[in-house]
C-alpha cells in the first residue's frame, strides 16, 4: 500500500512545484528606454525579448503611445503572424514592422517624425504560455538637432588630442631635419674654408721656393 502511494506523492509534489515555477517564466522585454531623434527623420524603435517558451504562431506584439503632454493612450501597431498597421490616427501610413520573431525582435520603424510624437512608446510581447512580464518602454524626444552626447564629446576630445600629437611629431621631425641641415651646411663651409687656406698656403710655399731658386 505504501509502496504504491509513495511514487504518486512524489509526482504530486513535483507537479505542484512545476506549477509554482511556471508563472516565473515570463517574457522579458529589452528596449533603449530613452531615445532622441531629429524632426522629419525616421527612427527605429528597438524592442527585443526573451521567452521561456519557444516562439510560435501564438506570439503577439502590441505597440502603444502615451503623449508627453498627457492624454489617452493611442494604438501604434499590432503583430500576430502578420503586421497590422493603424488605419486611422496620427500613425496611419507612418509605421512599419521591422521585427523578426525568430530572432526575438519586435521592433518597428516610425517615419517622418513630428514634434508631437514626443512621448512614451510601450512594447508588449506575449508568447503563450508566457503571457506575463513587464512592458518595455521607450521615451522618445523629437528635437530640431541632435545634441552632443558625452560619447561624442569624448570622441571629439580624443580626436583633437590625437591631431595635436601628430602636429607635435611633425614639428619635431621638421625641426630635427632643419637642424641637421644647418649643421651639414656649417660643416661644409668649414671644410671649404680649410681647403682654401690649405691651397693658399701651398701657393705661398710654391712662390717661396721659386724665389729661392731664382736667387
UniProtKB/TrEMBL annotation:
It is found in: Membrane. GO terms for biological process: cell-cell adhesion. GO terms for cellular component: plasma membrane. It is a single-pass type I membrane protein. The keyword RNA-binding does not apply. Keywords: Disulfide bond, Glycoprotein, Immunoglobulin domain, Membrane, Signal, Transmembrane, Transmembrane helix. The chain crosses the membrane at residues 151-175. Residues 23-141 form the Ig-like domain. SUPFAM superfamilies: Immunoglobulin (SSF48726). It holds the Pfam family V-set. The keyword Transmembrane helix applies. InterPro entries: Ig-like_dom, Ig-like_dom_sf, Ig-like_fold, Ig_sub, Ig_V-set, MPZL2_Ig-like_dom, Myelin_P0-rel. Residues 1-26 form the signal peptide. Belongs to the myelin P0 protein family. This is Myelin protein zero like 2. It comes from Molossus molossus (Pallas' mastiff bat). The lineage of its organism: Eukaryota, Metazoa, Chordata, Craniata, Vertebrata.
